[in-house]
Design goal:
- This protein is α/β, with parallel strands linked by helices.
- It has 2 domains: 2-34 and 120-440, Metal-dependent hydrolases (TIM Barrel, Alpha-Beta Barrel), CATH 3.20.20.140; 41-117, no CATH class.
- The protein is 52% helix and 12% strand.
- It is built from 21 helices and 10 strands.
- The protein has helices spanning 2-7, 11-20, 31-34, 37-46, 80-88, 94-97, 103-114, 121-134, 150-158, 164-173, 177-198, 225-241, 257-276, 302-308, 327-337, 345-352, 361-366, 378-381, 385-394, 400-412, 418-440; strands at residues 24-30, 50-52, 57-59, 137-144, 212-220, 245-251, 282-286, 312-317, 340-343, 371-373.
- The strands form 3 sheets. The chain has a 4-stranded parallel sheet with strand order 1-4-5-6.
- Strand 7 (282-286), helix 14 (302-308) and strand 8 form a beta-alpha-beta unit.
- Helix 7 crosses helix 16 (345-352) and helix 10 (164-173) crosses helix 12.
- The longest helix is centred in the C-terminal third of the chain and has 23 residues, at 418-440.
Length: 442
């Protein structure tokens, strides 16, 4: 497009252009990381929670300002402590104040600090879809703990059995179906609250009501084997029973010692469940590593094994692909298998320190591996889908036809049912046609 060529060197105009551009969908978003710190702090105040000033973490009552534990509701905008909280609960200003700790440590520490305020799932959904609509996304897949931790508790109660079949049978025999019922009820309640907040179905419905949402069930891979197994069972079973839940994914730092130690076992678990739930598509975090973060061996096979053993149809991040054994063969295999890579440029920069020419996006594109641009944790990263596309253009040198193809990929490789995908793809093409006409006469 001529206008894109004319303004690609003008940061301000380019950002506005990309903001207005249809983006299709965002396939890699953690719901808890999609919410801005300001919202969490407000909800913490509403809930009567306290702020521990020494750690800038939320705590349950009773609050005592004199003891360094004031009520969160008293942390007012514009005060020094307010700004400190926003910085501690996000990547805002981290390079200035926390660079010595590293982006990885600061990023993952944020979640523990605001975790007590993440119970308002319906409000979180409303914020996420409202921002998606403003970014001209029409579809999002949100990662969350669909069961609220119930499956992990069932796993703990059952105890570990390395015989996967017997482990599954033990869980099912002990009333595991109740976990699925509870998860569906949780989603029902969250969506009801979301519709209430956004006034969906009324004459003043917010734009977010038009965004199609599907869920990916999170499995905390740094937990005990019995907890991981039970969460996987819940994810596969729920995705088979509820069309709103379309997949599952392993979360937690990939360089966590437990994540590294148990990675082969996690892949075997996924293979076991895939045989029993072959219709459930899988997306996996893999290759979210950089040299020095973990032993070299951890960088040699996680992407390949996630596809071959874990049956992943999509890979989140895939940053260390050139450190895998025979990376050229792997890139060709990913291309041949049509495995999509969910690229999150801001996340890879602040967590891994990988950006610009050091990022493998160009290699993926060169070998014909399908790619989509994702946000990962836009609230914590203080980013947006627009800014991710802006990085793709300014830092990675992508042209208009390429970013348009990446937007199309986000719907082609979505895990929504076929009829929904066709509807969304038709909408996207119509939106692109209208957008390009508008850009001819800005």
């Amino acid at each position: 497009m001529e206008r894109f060529k004319a303004i690609r060197g003008d940061h301000v105009q380019l950002e506005q252009f990309l903001h207005e551009m249809p983006k299709g969908g965002d396939l890699h978003v953690h719901l808890s990381g999609a919410v801005y710190a300001e919202s969490y702090l407000r909800w913490a105040g509403d809930a009567g929670l306290c702020l521990v000033t020494a750690t800038l973490s939320l705590a349950r009552p009773s609050c005592d300002a004199a003891a360094g534990k004031p009520a969160a509701s008293t942390v007012s905008e514009g005060s020094p402590i307010y700004d400190q909280v926003l910085d501690a609960w996000s990547m805002r200003n981290w390079r200035d104040g926390n660079a010595a700790r590293g982006g990885r440590d600061h990023f993952f520490a944020t979640f523990a600090r605001f975790n007590l305020a993440t119970g308002r799932v319906g409000d979180m959904l409303a914020e996420a879809v409202s921002r998606a609509a403003a970014e001209h996304d029409e579809y999002v897949e949100l990662m969350l703990a669909t069961d609220g931790g119930a499956a992990a508790m069932r796993g703990t109660a059952a105890g570990w059995n390395a015989d996967f079949r017997r482990m599954r049978d033990r869980l099912v025999a002990n009333g595991f179906n109740a976990v699925l019922a509870e998860a569906r009820t949780r989603l029902d309640q969250a969506e009801a609250r979301e519709r209430e907040v956004l006034h969906c179905g009324s004459s003043d419905a917010a734009p977010g009501c038009a965004v199609t949402v599907r869920y990916i069930s999170q499995v905390y891979r740094a937990g005990a084997p019995e907890q991981v197994f039970a969460q996987m069972l819940a994810g596969f079973a729920l995705a088979s029973a509820d069309p709103r839940v379309v997949s599952l994914n392993l979360v937690a730092p990939e360089d966590d010692p437990v994540s590294i130690r148990d990675f082969p076992q996690h892949m075997r678990m996924l293979e076991f469940f895939h045989e029993r739930y072959p219709a459930v598509p899988i997306t996996l975090h893999a290759g979210e590593l950089a040299p020095g973060m973990a032993p070299p061996a951890a960088l040699h096979s996680h992407i390949r094994d996630s596809v071959r053993i874990g049956h992943a149809l999509r890979i989140g991040h895939g940053v260390d692909v050139m450190h895998e054994r025979n990376p050229t063969a792997l890139l060709r295999e990913l291309s041949a298998r049509r495995v999509l890579i969910e690229i999150a440029l801001s996340s890879n920069d602040v967590i891994l320190g990988i950006s610009g020419a050091a990022h493998p996006l160009a290699a993926y594109l060169r070998y014909g591996v399908p790619v989509a641009i994702a946000t990962d944790d836009p609230g914590v990263a203080r980013s947006s889908h627009t800014r991710e596309f802006l990085r793709a253009v300014e830092d990675q040198g992508l042209d208009y036809l390429t970013i348009k193809r990446l937007a199309r990929n986000s719907l082609e490789f979505a895990f929504a049912d076929r009829a929904t995908k066709r509807r969304l793809q038709t909408q996207l093409e119509n939106h692109f046609a209208a957008f390009e006409r508008q850009q001819q006469n800005p």
